[in-house]
Amino acid sequence: MAWIDLIIAGLFETLWATTLKLSQGFQKLDYTLYTIVGMGLSFWLLAKAIKTLPLGIAYPVWTGIGAVGTIILGVVFFGDRLAPLTWVFVGLLLISIIGIKITVP
C-alpha cells in the first residue's frame, strides 16, 4: 500500500507543478487552488508512504515521478522542446525509478 501511496503522491506532484505554471504566478485563483490542493495531497501521501518505506528510497522515487511526469506534460501541453540527449536522461531517470521499486521490498 505504501508504494501505491507513493506513486499517487508523485502523480499529484506532477499535477501541482503543472497547475503552478497555469496559475501564472498565483494570479489565477482556480489554478492556485488546484496547486495548493495538489501540494497538500502529494505531501500527505508521501508522509503516509514514509511511515513504511525508507526515506532514502521514497523521496527520490517521489521526486522522480514528479520530474518525469512534469517533463512529459510540459512537452505535450506546453510545447516544451527537449534535445534528443535530454530524452536519454529522462529515460534513465525512469529506468532508475523502476529499478528502485524492483529492488526494494
UniProtKB/TrEMBL annotation:
<dbReference type="InterPro" id="IPR037185">
    <property type="entry name" value="EmrE-like"/>
</dbReference>
<feature type="transmembrane region" description="Helical">
    <location>
        <begin position="85"/>
        <end position="104"/>
    </location>
</feature>
<dbReference type="InterPro" id="IPR000390">
    <property type="entry name" value="Small_drug/metabolite_transptr"/>
</dbReference>
<feature type="transmembrane region" description="Helical">
    <location>
        <begin position="59"/>
        <end position="79"/>
    </location>
</feature>
<keyword id="KW-0812">Transmembrane</keyword>
<dbReference type="InterPro" id="IPR045324">
    <property type="entry name" value="Small_multidrug_res"/>
</dbReference>
<keyword id="KW-1133">Transmembrane helix</keyword>
<keyword id="KW-0472">Membrane</keyword>
<protein>
    <submittedName>
        <fullName>DMT family transporter</fullName>
    </submittedName>
</protein>
<feature type="transmembrane region" description="Helical">
    <location>
        <begin position="31"/>
        <end position="47"/>
    </location>
</feature>
<comment type="similarity">
    <text>Belongs to the drug/metabolite transporter (DMT) superfamily. Small multidrug resistance (SMR) (TC 2.A.7.1) family.</text>
</comment>
<dbReference type="Pfam" id="PF00893">
    <property type="entry name" value="Multi_Drug_Res"/>
</dbReference>
<keyword id="KW-0813">Transport</keyword>
<keyword id="KW-1003">Cell membrane</keyword>
